TrEMBL record:
Pfam families, per database record: UDPGP
Broad class of enzyme this protein falls into: transferase
Subunit-structure text: Homooctamer.
The enzyme's E.C. designation: 2.7.7.9
Name of the protein described by the UniProt record: UTP--glucose-1-phosphate uridylyltransferase
Entry keyword set: Nucleotidyltransferase, Transferase
Amino acid sequence: MSIYVEDFRKAVSNSGMAQFKEAGRQELEKSMKEDLEKLQATASKEEAEITRKDFDGFKKLFHRFLQEKGPSVDWGMIQRPPEDSIQPYEKIKSKGLPDNVASVLNKLVVVKLNGGLGTSMGCKGPKSLISVRNENTFLDLTVQQIEHLNKTYNTEVPLVLMNSFNTNEDTNKILQKYTHCHVKIHTFNQSRYPRINKESLLPIAKDMSKTGDNADTWYPPGHGDIYASFYNSGLLDKLIAEGKEYIFVSNIDNLGATVDLYILNHLMSQPNGKRCEFVMEVTDKTRADVKGGTLTQYGGKLRLLEIAQVPKAHVDEFKSVSKFKIFNTNNLWISLAAIKRLQEQNAIDMEIIVNPKTLNGGLNVIQLETAVGAAIKSFDNALGINVPRSRFLPVKTTSDLLLVMSNLYSLNAGSLTMSKKREFPTVPLTKLGSSFTKVQEFLMRFESIPDMLELDHLTVSGDVTFGKNVSLKGTVIIIANHGDRIDIPAGAVLENKIVSGNLRILDH
């Protein structure tokens, strides 16, 4: 579980606290500098300049990690955001679209965060290459969406992928298949930072290689790294020179994060001096989202507040749907010129997240990370827009995958929309047990994806399989006890049913 710096300090032993005292800090920073120089000396010629920039960024982060004192937020200073700082989407939409949609679209760049692997769903390689609908991957759907925009409006909206060293090679191989698409695709890499020993707080890597004993010694430092790595790549300047003004950033696994012309028009129609430099799309919390980061007013600025920053005494208050009604979807619209200005002034302020890990050999390490949305307080005229839930459709688990593969959604030009045949717009609550965790196992358990148009709640646990053309309605709970197996027969209609025990369909 990720924590913020003050909680990490509380957790370290008293003997370790010396590292955070002035003399200890200076000594540690000197040792860190020496270790990084030794590592840098092992970099190839091609890697040398990138490594230098990466390590410069890491040293700044590490310095802040050692310097930070006290809690990152003072609970007494947290206020609800002023009414006009979070606009309802309907108000934005009511402004309509400009006569020339192409003129605003040509100022836009779509950026997808593509640094993650599919390991949590039992897949090797980049998560973006997992098939989610009709053999289309996350990346396929993204390209289809932008190509549709470009063909419809005769525009040149490019796609930029922020890869990590974990995903870059596989992603670049697959990009060849899009050569004939009407979408320019650029990539840049997140930084590569060294994991540090939890006790000594020094790097565990012996050299710059990423294989063998060194495979677990590096990490991509969270999506907050986008500002520095985008700037360092040279791509930011290139896009500004091409006349681009805003990026729309989102996680590649959020299938609801499509380009919204109304939000884009709102950004582009502001008077120059009042230009909004940062928009965060938020949506109403449900009971399932109580841990999601929320927008608050803090020191006169909009600020993202994450659950890990909340003092334990106030966690229940944070989770309250009545006090903090919205959460961050991580769909963000950010001014390119503002990123350039702030990056050059070293003025992007993001809280440090300490992410502890235990490696295979049992070694405890930490990685220092930042989150892209936390920078909202550094930008001028920042705004939240309360968007419909349909713009937040992340696929983090096979339970999510089941929903997007089902007839709850229809697919058109890479975009998923809720079926008109579903009587209410909410998504069913779906919980699949550990037998379904890996995508391959999940697919083997369904001969075809069930009809879920009238489903409210599905819980499946244990060794369960589904035949063809099964229909699930209302609340359905299927539990196969240990050692038992349940085969739901082809054509079965389960409505408000609990199925348990052993139900094996035998061939005869």
